[in-house]
Amino acid sequence: MTLEWTVEYTVDFPEEELEHICDILRQEGYSDRYAVDLIREVIMGFEDDEYYAWSTKQTQEVMNEIKRRIGGIQLSMFDDKEEQ
Fold first, then answer.
1. Is 23 inside a domain boundary?
2. Is 70 exceeded by the pLDDT of residue 72?
3. 25 contacts 69 by C-beta, under 8 angstroms
4. Which helix (H) or strand (E) holds 76?
């Protein structure tokens, strides 16, 4: 017998933690590995169901927001224009 179901979660990544991560990465320089480590520190404090439902997809979404806030996406777009 196989049972399958999908459970959707909505999790608010704490704004103050997000800003703290952005500040650290602005000061120390951005790296994907360091960003993931900082994000993991935050999600370790989540409730068990949210923690175990978290995946690399959610981590990537948080990383994209961090890059947007510290200018990573804009800088990479600028670099692409210079190469043309």
1. yes
2. no
3. no
4. helix 72-83
- Token readout for 60 is 């990537």
CA atoms within 13 A on the CB side of 4: 1
Tell me the C-alpha to C-alpha distance, in Å, between residue 77 and each of 58, 63, 65.
Answer: 23, 17, 15
Domain around 28: 15-83
Other C-beta atoms lying within 10 Å of the C-beta of residue 63: 19
Beta-carbon neighbour count of residue 26 at 10 Å?
Answer: 13
Is the separation of the CB atoms in 13 and 55 below 8 Å?
no
Tally the domains of the chain: 1
pLDDT, mean of residues 23-33: 93
pTM of the model: 0.77
